[in-house]
UniProtKB/TrEMBL annotation:
It comes from Staphylococcus muscae. InterPro entries: 1-PFruKinase, Carboh/pur_kinase_PfkB_CS, PfkB_dom, Ribokinase-like, Tagatose/fructose_Pkinase. Residues 10-280 form the Carbohydrate kinase PfkB domain. It comes from the Bacteria. Belongs to the carbohydrate kinase pfkB family. Pathway: Carbohydrate metabolism; D-tagatose 6-phosphate degradation; D-glyceraldehyde 3-phosphate and glycerone phosphate from D-tagatose 6-phosphate: step 1/2. The lineage of its organism: Bacteria, Bacillati, Bacillota, Bacilli, Bacillales. This is Tagatose-6-phosphate kinase. Its EC number is 2.7.1.144. Pfam families: PfkB (PF00294). Catalyzes the ATP-dependent phosphorylation of fructose-l-phosphate to fructose-l,6-bisphosphate.
Length: 307
């Protein structure tokens, strides 16, 4: 089984307003609401790829019920830990440009954390755990490392997509894959990356720190994949970018789907980039028809040390 962990889920409430004016009464032209959170996005795209998963994390109140109901109605299993306070509601105001207001989220207690960690202790070598997204302020910053240690002990594989401070703590536990973007990789090593050779150089440093594989997303320039024996540059298909939110999560879902379906490394990379691009070219997360279409337009080249 694949388990996705979202420590700080949300309802993402999208409001479309023509000519928004601060300090005045504005009316929406349309609204939409989605179950949000990086791990949840991974589960949703895995479902699109016909790969089952179970969503873990913390939910509470009526927003938490909305998150659970949304996933359940999409055929996704959930086993969230219930908390006392409400799951956060984030507002995305779209009026020409986009303004985001993200809530802090509920207080997570020690008992809540223990319950989640106990769930992870039940995993086995047959499982993959995807840990993604931000950490609520009430949760210790060591939570990623705590989860990684447990998963390493159970023999499950784990994939991580998170910011620098969280990723660094899990590297000693040999994650199957980490997925920084170019800016995050630059921040990790306090450097500026200007070429594929630079990506290779610093990606290999992450391998030396413990990661089994690294996928560095480069936005419209595609991605670079590195492991101990090979490195590839994957070009992104061309299209009109509508929405970048969730594109990285969709890429992770494509990689994990490739792991579980025994695809070759190049087939897995193509599925990952097609999934990420399909989200970028859509109002919401990737649709299967778009993924299948884009798969025909993915080019992959092998890289050497010179890039």
């Amino acid at each position: 089984m694949i388990y996705t962990v979202t420590l700080n889920p949300s309802i993402d409430y999208v409001m479309f307003v023509d000519d928004f004016e601060a300090g005045a009464l504005n009316r929406t032209t349309a609204t939409a609401k989605f179950a949000g959170g990086k791990g949840i996005n991974v589960s949703r795209v895995l479902q699109t790829l016909d790969v089952p998963s179970t969503a873990l994390g913390f939910v509470g109140g009526f927003p938490g019920r909305f998150v659970e109901d949304t996933l359940t109605s999409a055929g996704i299993q959930t086993a969230f830990t219930q908390v006392d306070e409400d799951t956060r509601i984030n507002v995305k105001l779209k009026s020409g440009s986009e303004t985001e207001i993200n809530a802090t989220g509920p207080t997570i207690t020690e008992d809540n954390i223990k319950a989640l960690l106990e769930q992870l202790r039940q995993t086995t070598s047959e499982d993959i755990v995807v840990i993604a997204g931000s950490v609520p302020s009430s949760v210790p910053k060591t939570i990623y490392a705590d989860m990684a240690k447990i998963v390493q002990e159970t023999g499950a594989q784990f994939v991580v997509d998170a910011e620098k401070s969280l990723v660094e703590g899990i590297l000693p536990y040999a994650p199957r894959l980490i997925k920084p973007n170019k800016v995050e990789l630059e921040e990790m090593f306090d450097t500026t990356i200007t070429s594929d050779a630079d990506v290779l150089k610093y990606g290999r440093k992450l391998l030396n720190k413990g990661a089994q594989a690294v996928l560095v997303s480069l936005g419209g320039d595609g991605a670079v994949y590195i492991d101990a024996s090979q490195a590839y540059k994957v070009s992104a298909p061309k299209g009109k970018v509508i929405n970048t939110v969730g594109a990285g999560d969709s890429t992770v879902a494509g990689m994990v789907a490739g792991f579980t379906q025994a695809l070759s490394q190049q087939e897995t990379l193509a599925l990952a980039i097609a999934s990420g691009s399909a989200t970028a070219f859509n109002d919401d997360l990737a649709e299967r028809s778009m993924i299948d279409t884009l798969l025909e337009n993915i080019s992959i080249t092998q890289l050497n040390e010179e890039g």
